[in-house]
Design goal:
By secondary structure, this protein is an all-alpha fold. The protein has one domain (about 5-120). It has helices at about 5-30, 35-40, 45-65, 70, 80-90, 95-120. The longest helix has 24 residues, at about 5-30.
Length: about 130
């Protein structure tokens, strides 16, 4: 494949937003004291599953327009979105180590994205 299309990257970014929102829905479904039956019939659980389904479809479409080795690492940004959503919605603590981890994810995804655009790829090893 001759590189990754911008639309494919955008689809993966949208997908990470959807699946991160799904994680928040799961957290809402698993409210303290909720029984398993209450969780199974929770609108939050089903909303989360729906968001995951849409994310799955978008990811598969995105793979048609790009290299898996470029697109898949973008999924790691889901950790960032979940951390931000958890902090803002559930008042969860963002420790220094979490912030360093988020920074590392951003740098890693940027480096992978840059290597795709610059063509600086490791030499292929014959099999």
């Amino acid at each position: 494949m001759s590189g990754t299309k911008t639309w494919a990257i955008i689809l993966v970014i949208i997908m990470t937003g959807l699946t991160s929102s799904a994680q928040v829905m799961y957290k809402l479904a698993a409210s303290p004291g909720a029984s398993l039956i209450e969780v199974l019939f929770s609108r939050y659980l089903w909303a989360g599953l729906f968001l995951y389904g849409i994310g799955f479809i978008l990811l598969n479409i995105a793979f048609r327009g790009g290299e898996v080795s470029t697109l898949y690492p973008i999924i790691a940004t889901s950790y960032i979105w979940v951390a931000v959503l958890s902090y803002s919605l559930f008042n969860e603590h963002l420790s220094s180590l979490k912030l360093i981890g988020i920074f590392a994810i951003v740098v890693g995804v940027a480096l992978i994205s840059r290597s795709d655009k610059s063509g600086a790829v490791a030499e292929e090893v014959p099999v």
